[in-house]
Structure formats: C-alpha cells, structure tokens
Amino acid sequence: MNKKNRINKYLIQAVLIIFAVFCIFPFYWMVLTALKSSNNVIEFPPKVYPTSFKFSNFADVFRLMPMGQAYLNSIKVTLLATFGTLFTSSLAAFAFAKMRFRFRGLLFGILLGTMMIPGQVTLIPLYIVFARLGWIDTHLPLIVPTVLTNAYGVFMIRQFMINLPSDYVEAAKIDGCNYFRIYWQVMLPLCKPIIVTLGLFTFIWNWNNYLGALIFLNTDTKFTVPLIISAFRGVYTVQWELLMAASTVAILPIIIMYLFSQKFFIQAVSLTGIKA
Predict the structure, then answer these.
(1) Tell me, what CATH number does 265's domain have?
(2) pLDDT, tens only, 254-270
(3) In 8, 18, 78, 126, which residue has its Cα 20 to 30 A from 72's Cα atom?
(4) Contact at 8 Å (CB) between 32 and 241?
(5) Does some domain include residue 49?
C-alpha cells in the first residue's frame, strides 16, 4: 500500500470514528443520567463522566411503576405481531413473486399504494371498528392490523424472492409439491436473511409503538413499555434519572435482537440488489 492510499485509509477511519462517537454519545448520556441522583442530573455545567453511581434507580423503575408487567405485555404484543407479520407477509410475497394469476400487478400496485396513507389518518376509523368489536383496552388492536396490513413487509420479501431462480419452484412442482409446500419447504429456507431482517424491523416498530398503545389502552396493567416510560414525565416535573433508567431497560431487547440478527441483516441488504 502506497503512502497516498494509506493516508486515505486513515482519513476514512477517522471520519468513521467521529460519526461512531456522535452515534454512541446519546446512549452513553442516557446510561450516565440513569446512574445519577436527582441533584446531579440538574447540576450545571453537566459532567460527561460519572462521579457517583446510583444503581437503585433501576430498582425504583420497577418499584414505582408496573414495569415488569409492561415488559411482559410488550413481549407478548411484539412477538405475536412479529411472527404473524412474517407469516402473512412471506405468504403474500410468495404469491406475488412466484405465482401467476390475473391482475397480479394491479393488486400489488394497490397494496403498495396503501403505504402512502399515513397511519394517523386511519386511527379514528380503526378506533370506531375496534370499539364495535369490543377490542378497546385489549392488545388485539396492536397485533391484528400489523399482521394483516404490512405492505412494506410484503414488498421486502417479494423483492428478495424475485431474485431467487424459478427453477426451484419448477423442480418442486415436478416432484409433486403444491404451492404451500413449495412456499414452506423451498422458499422460506432460502429467504432466511430477509425474513430475519423484516423480523428485526417489525420487532423494533412494535416494541416502540407508543401512539397505538396510547390510543387503544386504558388500564395500566395492560400498558406496554413506551406508555410506562411516559409516566415518568409529570405535568410540572420530570424524573430524568428514572426516565433514563426506564429507557435503558427498554432498549435492551432491541440491542439483543440486533446483535443476533446483524449477520442476516447485512446479507439481506447485499443480496436484495443482485439480479439472478
């Protein structure tokens, strides 16, 4: 490596390090604030290094608010919505990618058109429908719409399936497989990277779904984690140390999910743009 290439390499690494610091600092500040006392939180000028640690803030989060129950509620809602979305989206994507039927392009275009409708526009109609069904103050409004109407998930998986050779489908047909068996035993194993990637996106979105929970849930025992976190913001005061402690606890599942799915995420991004 010559001198010019070495200098360019060091410059790129320096820029990446600076960007990494900017990205990591908010998380560092969140954890640092979560370990401070109420007096140290409001001190000025603020210190960017820890002077004392108050680990009891994390215990207070679970003692003062039903954070444990909210965690269980969020896990229930998120897992059901994620696995349901993966099944329905992959099934629809297989139909649009590998099956031939009338008006396939038109139906897919209509499905993509629903992505242009802001979610806030449908909140009132959905609330009226769910009220008549008796679903208000249950977790069903947070699960069912996500499972049945995920156009983005269908689009992602379809684009990945289109890149897979159709020879797999034809060979399975010759062996006597029906379409569902082809989908389940042939296509899904090949689509593992994009399935994991969509699962990660769906998990994060449902775990952080604040607006839906705020609209449809009324009982604190049914609250999800975002609603419990907002409870630490009072009308006139904010318990910043408890708010940051609750936020730190809340992002742990997302970090764990990303660490386990990072390899598949990178693979899906690299393979989706390759034409077979």
Answers:
(1) 1.10.3720.10
(2) 888 888 877 776 666 66
(3) 126
(4) no
(5) no
